[in-house]
Structures are given as C-alpha cells and as structure tokens.
Amino acid sequence: MPFDHLGFNVSNFLKSRDFYISALAPLDISIVHEGDGWAAFGEEGRIMFWIGTMGAVPGPIHFAFTARDHAAVRAFHAAAIEAGGSDNGAPGFRPNYHANYYAAFVLDPDGHNVEAVCHRSGEVA
C-alpha cells in the first residue's frame, strides 16, 4: 500500500520551510498549501509531505524523493547544500541498493536525512 503523504514537526519552521523550498525546487516540488506554522509540499496540487510546529520534533528520520534524472539529483544536492543542508552522501550510484540507484543525501536543519533518487537505467551521470 503506497503512502498518501507524510508530515513531521520541525524546530524552526521558517528555516526549514526555506530549506525545503530551495532543496526541492530542482525536483519540481513546491509549497501546495501553507498556514500559520505549517507548509505542505507537493506537485500539481497534490500534497506529498508537510512540515510544521504542532508538536514535538521527531528524532532523525529518512525519506526520499524521486528525481526525473541524474541531473535533478545533482541539482537537488547542490540546492540543498546552498540552502544550509549538510552533505550526507554526494550524488552517485549506490550499487549496493541496485545497479541503477543514483542518489544524493543531505541532512536538513533538524538532522533528517533527505534523499533524491533516480532509478532510471542507461543514463550517463
């Protein structure tokens, strides 16, 4: 059963919102809805995930976004670092997952491990 969306609390809403706006732009993901202390991100009007300040901040979590190609993975990584994220795995193949697993990992302002991954075969990185 696939997920519809996921959400979690952040310690500094504005800092996290700005981080995700920048980091997810190369993946064509943006704010779909926003309110006082929360923002929902997605594409084409569909919410994929939200962040907010409505409760306790969870311990570090990991989640991944699908990228359309390797260039988008690299652009995500660069934008996330520029937005204040910390490198947690430069763009590249991860053959321990599968031969075409091309991904990059960045820690967000709360230490969550955010990934962009492309599973396409035959693409030159």
Automatic annotation (TrEMBL):
<dbReference type="Pfam" id="PF00903">
    <property type="entry name" value="Glyoxalase"/>
</dbReference>
<dbReference type="InterPro" id="IPR004360">
    <property type="entry name" value="Glyas_Fos-R_dOase_dom"/>
</dbReference>
<dbReference type="InterPro" id="IPR037523">
    <property type="entry name" value="VOC_core"/>
</dbReference>
<feature type="domain" description="VOC">
    <location>
        <begin position="2"/>
        <end position="119"/>
    </location>
</feature>
<protein>
    <submittedName>
        <fullName>Catechol 2,3-dioxygenase-like lactoylglutathione lyase family enzyme</fullName>
    </submittedName>
</protein>
<dbReference type="InterPro" id="IPR029068">
    <property type="entry name" value="Glyas_Bleomycin-R_OHBP_Dase"/>
</dbReference>
